[in-house]
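Tutorial handout. Part one gives the primary structure; part two gives the three-dimensional structure as tokens.
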Amino acid sequence: MNPFKSKIYCTKCNKKYRRKMEKGVEKFICGGYSKGIGCTERIVIKGEFIRDLINRRYERVLTDEELEQVVERIDITDEIIMDIHFTDDQDPILLQGSFIQF
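Part two.
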């Protein structure tokens, strides 16, 4: 199950990120880059990294079903800049370099 399906977007080309499994590791790659119609840079975000950020916010490990319910949208600029927005009107998680706002 992919709890982030149709929820991760590239802020550079507005395309959705696509889920790929590479050697058993869940990764997300900009769909614009994958199709050659958007980004020229291959930005890869590991699913585990996104899950860890969200689990830190909720202070527990969420199931895929719970993740699907609580995550509204994830905007990714690059590997170190992203915003994770929630359906329950909580403030978003902001990641900008070494700064993380939970």
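Part three, for discussion. The radius of gyration is 13 Å. Strands lie at 8-10, 17-22, 25-30, 44-46, 71-78, 81-86, 93-96, 99-101.
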